[in-house]
């Protein structure tokens, strides 16, 4: 992997310097650390990076990270990686409109950050050179064996994806065994843009068309006997994704 020039846009300076240290240890160059949109735009003009890491929530900026990404992309094509603690569906949908190279949820492991940066840049370059858009394609080829190969996943057959520390477990229709990939759920979730996919929690992305039964803190999907657990406080929002017929009140 070649050394990348990377701009960090992060208003928490301790976090920003930790990220810089991680990236420099991995052999990359950090062109600048900025805390707001104007400073980031100036930095890109003076010292153009290969890739930009942007925190979505910027307290010291009139614009958030997604607005900044739109400004950057209006001037040039450049891979964007979002760093954020926000996993709400509206935020993710806004971020997806900018076609980010990756979307990493805080907190993340620093070793994982370096790997995801390199994967994101590689995938971005491959997308630019290839007419097949992974955001729109029905199939994805995900890395296995530490990037030595790729395995095909049909998005339309995905029941749900579940984070397990630094890994993502993918459960497929008509397959008893889950498939496990070494990557962040926030990163892989960006490629599932179909409205059927819903972020039920920070660790769970669900294909709504395969949900067959919902209870207070668990649901069942087609073809699997075991229930899938989720936070009970997300139950009400989850129900809103379905055409629910409630029991009529008695007179």
UniProtKB/TrEMBL annotation:
<dbReference type="GO" id="GO:0005829">
    <property type="term" value="C:cytosol"/>
</dbReference>
<protein>
    <submittedName>
        <fullName>Two component transcriptional regulator, LytTR family</fullName>
    </submittedName>
</protein>
<dbReference type="InterPro" id="IPR007492">
    <property type="entry name" value="LytTR_DNA-bd_dom"/>
</dbReference>
<dbReference type="InterPro" id="IPR001789">
    <property type="entry name" value="Sig_transdc_resp-reg_receiver"/>
</dbReference>
<keyword id="KW-0804">Transcription</keyword>
<dbReference type="GO" id="GO:0032993">
    <property type="term" value="C:protein-DNA complex"/>
</dbReference>
<dbReference type="GO" id="GO:0000156">
    <property type="term" value="F:phosphorelay response regulator activity"/>
</dbReference>
<dbReference type="InterPro" id="IPR039420">
    <property type="entry name" value="WalR-like"/>
</dbReference>
<keyword id="KW-0902">Two-component regulatory system</keyword>
<dbReference type="Pfam" id="PF00072">
    <property type="entry name" value="Response_reg"/>
</dbReference>
<keyword id="KW-0805">Transcription regulation</keyword>
<feature type="domain" description="HTH LytTR-type">
    <location>
        <begin position="142"/>
        <end position="216"/>
    </location>
</feature>
<dbReference type="GO" id="GO:0000976">
    <property type="term" value="F:transcription cis-regulatory region binding"/>
</dbReference>
<feature type="domain" description="Response regulatory">
    <location>
        <begin position="5"/>
        <end position="121"/>
    </location>
</feature>
<keyword id="KW-0238">DNA-binding</keyword>
<keyword id="KW-0597">Phosphoprotein</keyword>
<feature type="modified residue" description="4-aspartylphosphate">
    <location>
        <position position="55"/>
    </location>
</feature>
<dbReference type="GO" id="GO:0006355">
    <property type="term" value="P:regulation of DNA-templated transcription"/>
</dbReference>
<dbReference type="InterPro" id="IPR011006">
    <property type="entry name" value="CheY-like_superfamily"/>
</dbReference>
<dbReference type="Pfam" id="PF04397">
    <property type="entry name" value="LytTR"/>
</dbReference>
């Amino acid at each position: 992997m070649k050394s990348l020039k990377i701009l960090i846009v992060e208003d928490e300076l301790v976090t920003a310097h930790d990220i810089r240290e991680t990236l420099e240890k991995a052999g990359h160059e950090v062109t600048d650390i900025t805390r707001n949109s104007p400073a980031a735009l100036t930095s890109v003009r003076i010292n153009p990076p290969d890739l930009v890491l942007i925190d979505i929530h910027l307290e010291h900026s009139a614009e958030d990270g997604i607005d900044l990404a739109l400004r950057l992309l209006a001037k040039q094509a450049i891979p964007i990686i979002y760093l954020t603690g926000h996993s709400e569906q509206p935020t993710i949908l806004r971020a997806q409109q900018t076609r980010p190279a990756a979307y990493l949820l805080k907190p993340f492991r620093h070793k994982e950050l370096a790997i995801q940066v390199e994967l994101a840049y590689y995938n971005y370059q491959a997308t630019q050179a290839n007419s097949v858009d992974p955001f729109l394609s029905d199939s994805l080829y995900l890395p296995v064996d530490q990037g030595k190969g790729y395995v095909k996943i049909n998005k339309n057959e995905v029941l749900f994806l579940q984070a397990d520390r630094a890994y993502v477990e993918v459960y497929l229709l008509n397959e008893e065994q889950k498939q496990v990939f070494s990557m962040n759920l926030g990163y892989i979730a960006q490629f599932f843009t179909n409205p059927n996919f819903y972020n039920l929690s920070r660790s769970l992305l669900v294909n709504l068309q395969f949900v067959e039964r919902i209870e207070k803190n668990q649901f069942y999907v087609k073809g699997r006997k075991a229930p899938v657990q989720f936070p009970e406080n997300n139950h009400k929002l989850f129900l809103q994704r379905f055409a629910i017929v409630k029991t009529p009140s008695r007179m």
